[in-house]
Amino acid sequence: MDISYVLVTGATGFIGAQIVDKLLARGLKVRGATRSPSKAQSMFSARPNYTSKLDFVIIRDFEQTGVFDDAVQGIDAVIHVASPLTYDTTDNENELIIPALNGVRSILTAASKASVKRIVITSSFAAVLDLSRKSPPFFTYTSADWNPLTYSEAIAPCTSAVVAYRGSKKFAELEAWNYLQTHKPQFDLVTICPPMTFGPIVHPVSRVEDLNESNVQLWKIAAGEKPLPVTRVPFWIDVRDLAEAHVEALVRPEVGNKRFTPASPEHFSYEMAAKVMLEEFDWARGRVSEEEQEVDVSYGLDGLTVTKELGVKYRSFRETVVDLVSQAREMEKNSR
Ligand SMILES: NC(=O)c1ccc[n+]([C@@H]2O[C@H](COP(=O)([O-])OP(=O)(O)OC[C@H]3O[C@@H](n4cnc5c(N)ncnc54)[C@H](OP(=O)(O)O)[C@@H]3O)[C@@H](O)[C@H]2O)c1
């Protein structure tokens, strides 16, 4: 695929920044989109070797129609990562679901008026998971599966932010697939549905308290919080492998209009994370919980198709935990 200049939304976030670095390392030009001039400046200053290959656009409100019209000019492809990921909400529909939907609408509409050839969207395993499916017998989720949650269930006042977030990812991804059917734009689409994503950070964060939602769970364990977080699903991926999956999904012509579920074949629990910390770090002994937590191996998620079609090989859980926790421990020491 002939792509040289890529717009990345959510470029200053945990996953987005890793994608930016993978694109730059492949020699591609990158335009990052962010709401925050200071985060843009930090990302830019931290990459002195890429000053001619990296620029940022400030989009204060991603939800408004037309805000991406200028940002997509000259762009060959878009990786749309930005979406609200927080469980600290008071109004799930307005804080999680509508922003996710409007963000997709806004970027797709702008792209259809420019010369964008492909859009890759970071969806989530949350858009795949069906809580009514129970094992035994053993079953494996694939990219053909969709979360059956309805819009009214997702916005109901009694619905938790976790479930509403799952709705936000499902409805935003569906919006993109429906847009293709209805508007038949010149670009094709690839969606990526990762499970829990952990690993080292390359985005601007200086305090462990400000780590993104998924990594913060690992840090809470390292910080000695008890009990261990609940392991809702046993699937995970390293952020560096996920960034590679996005970039491969962007550059391989043959994967257009496909949906992928990148995931490590290793199932995890937070007890496994605690054990890695206890084995690898002297400081963790006496601090990190030794609570038991079963690893759920009663069902699976197909990560193999991504290895076959996108060439991604997965890191081990140990490597991911060690790399993030070592980095976060240094941040903790430096912020004292
Ligand atoms: N982390 C995981 O475990 C995981 C797993 C599966 C899928 N995902 C998906 O991956 C994507 C990125 O997640 P992440 O973990 O990298 O989160 P993150 O670190 O919080 O980054 C998300 C980025 O999106 C932007 N953003 C957030 N809310 C926004 C809004 N209302 N309007 C516009 N921009 C907004 C923010 O950029 P600015 O503040 O710079 O504007 C932020 O840097 C999300 O789509 C998430 O659903 C994450």
TrEMBL record:
Gene3D superfamilies linked to this entry? NAD(P)-binding Rossmann-like Domain
InterPro entries per the UniProt record, alphabetical: Epimerase_deHydtase, NAD(P)-bd_dom_sf, NAD(P)_dehydrat-like
Ranges for domain NAD-dependent epimerase/dehydratase come to 6-257
Q: Which UniProt keywords apply?
A: Oxidoreductase
Respond yes or no to whether keyword Oxidoreductase is given for this record: yes
Query: So which domain of life are we looking at?
Result: Eukaryota
Task: Establish whether keyword Nucleotide-binding is in the entry.
Answer: no
SUPFAM superfamilies linked: NAD(P)-binding Rossmann-fold domains
Q: Which Pfam families match?
A: Epimerase
CDD domains (alphabetical): AR_SDR_e
Q: Which GO terms describe its molecular function?
A: oxidoreductase activity, acting on the CH-OH group of donors, NAD or NADP as acceptor
Q: Which family does it belong to?
A: Belongs to the NAD(P)-dependent epimerase/dehydratase family. Dihydroflavonol-4-reductase subfamily.
Give the protein's recorded name. Answer: NAD(P)-binding protein
